[in-house]
Design goal:
DUF4374 domain-containing protein; mainly beta; globular; 452 residues
Length: 452
């Protein structure tokens, strides 16, 4: 097994030194000079170290970069937990990468440094060189921000938050709330855009976002938002949303309620003004995702996964008119012939074919819950096929998955159960061929959260 510890700067020095010594009179004139290293795409592997419990990822994040050639080589061994660069963060770092893999963007999550934005040039191995200045978005969206890199040529990031407050008329005495009247739950959102190039704040806006009067009267409200996504025209920002509900009679959290149609908040961009809410009549459930990007622009529309849908996850479509296209019916239960499909993370290539990480009712309960499968989906044909070449293990944890690498029509993923070794896998989305790549060396209770 070949282990990768190479620092490209050191290698360049060795080659240069070798070339100089080759000029000695003791060396023949026809000595072969080593070929220069060809340009390649870096593949950065990220691991989340255990905190208190296996799979919690709260012990910090370590990253390690290899060439795409080494990432595809099953004789290569990658061990970020022993040899990686520690990405600054109190808990699991929130990582993004440039489209060519040459830059890593990080916003620290929680703790004293929570909300700090840093940027690194990827130079191979554990060498990630800080570039540019730091900036904190904590004053705008707190120390545990939910942020994402917009697909605008690595120019902009966006982070969001929501705070809620029940609006109740106090009709009783200070010690008696039995006569109080529930009106609605106010959801106040904050949205900030970040200049990734110059490490500065572009815009920040706050809005109170309302649902319909009927929905609010029943106790529904927006309780979580995430995953801002630009439309093709670049003039609207879509923000995924999760709904919760209280019992209007008691203002206590409700459960077992009717799941409403999936919703998205739409803002003007770049001004971040004029919030509206659009609703799907096909999908029901949340659109905010979790750790991985949940919506992508393709072919002039935005395709968005939903979660916790009673009918299984859908991939929904928002058209160029900034409304849900309810004629686009792509349900993962139906496409895969399963029940309880739940899209944990996904990523399309430019050809409209995507890799989806999902669980379903047949997933076994492992160390970190029921997880674990990949499928190849076609957004145009609305088809999905389970990727059998990637092994299933009950302890393979995907809920915290963050990163897929897209390189042309190829998509790189990591697969390693909690605390066990695994591999990089590369899926050719055109042919469906899967290549088993480099070994991922794990650590006790830790897991891999993707490739960037």
């Amino acid at each position: 097994m070949k282990q990768i510890f190479t620092n490209p700067k050191a290698l360049a020095f060795i080659l240069a030194f070798g070339a100089l010594t080759a000029c000695s009179d003791d060396i023949n004139d026809d000595t072969v000079t080593p070929n220069p290293i060809e340009d390649t795409r870096w593949i950065t592997v990220a691991g989340a170290k255990m905190g208190d419990n296996p799979g919690d990822g709260n012990g910090g994040t370590l990253i390690y970069a290899v060439t795409s050639e080494d990432a595809k080589d099953p004789t290569v061994s990658i061990n970020p937990f022993e040899n990686g660069f520690i990405a600054p963060s109190n808990r699991t770092a929130r990582l993004q990468s440039s489209e060519d893999g040459s830059t890593i963007f990080n916003i620290s999550y929680a703790g004293d440094t929570g909300g700090n934005y840093t940027k690194y040039t990827v130079e191979g191995g554990q060498t990630f060189t800080p570039t540019g200045s730091e900036v904190s978005i904590a004053p705008y969206v707190g120390t545990a921000p939910r942020w994402i890199k917009l697909f605008d040529g690595d120019q902009t990031g966006s982070a969001v938050y929501v705070s809620t407050e029940h609006q109740v008329d106090d009709n009783g005495t200070p010690d008696d709330a039995t006569d109080d009247t529930y009106n609605y739950t106010e959801a106040k959102i904050g949205v900030v855009t970040l200049d990734l190039v110059n490490s500065s704040i572009n815009e920040f806006k706050e809005h109170v976002v309302r649902l319909s009067a009927e929905e609010e009267a029943k106790g529904y409200y927006i309780s979580r938002i995430d995953m801002p996504t630009l439309n093709k025209a670049g003039d609207k920002l879509y923000i995924g949303a999760r709904l919760s509900k209280v019992d209007p009679a008691t203002v206590e959290n409700d459960s077992g309620y009717e799941i409403l149609g999936s919703k998205t908040i739409v803002l003007d961009y770049p001004s971040l003004l004029n919030p509206t809410v659009i609703t799907s009549t096909l999908g029901h459930g949340n659109t905010n995702g979790y750790r991985s990007i949940n919506a992508f622009e393709y072919g002039g529309s935005v395709y968005q996964a939903n979660q916790s849908d009673p009918e299984g996850s859908y991939i929904l479509k928002i058209g160029a008119d900034n409304e849900y296209d309810n004629s686009y019916n792509f349900n993962l239960n139906d496409a895969l012939g399963i029940e309880g499909a739940y899209i944990l993370a996904w990523r399309p290539a430019a050809n409209g074919k995507a890799v989806v990480a999902y669980r379903h009712n047949g997933s076994q309960d492992g160390l970190a819950g029921a997880q674990g499968f990949f499928a190849l989906v076609d957004l145009n044909a609305k088809t999905a096929t389970k990727i059998d070449a990637i092994p299933y293990d009950p302890d393979f944890y995907l809920f915290q998955y963050q990163g897929f690498v897209v390189d042309g029509t190829e998509i790189y993923v990591t697969q390693a159960p909690v605390g066990k070794n695994g591999n990089i896998y590369v899926i050719d989305t055109e042919t469906g061929v899967v290549t088993k790549g480099a070994e991922l060396v794990n650590a006790e209770g830790s897991h891999f959260i993707g490739a960037f």
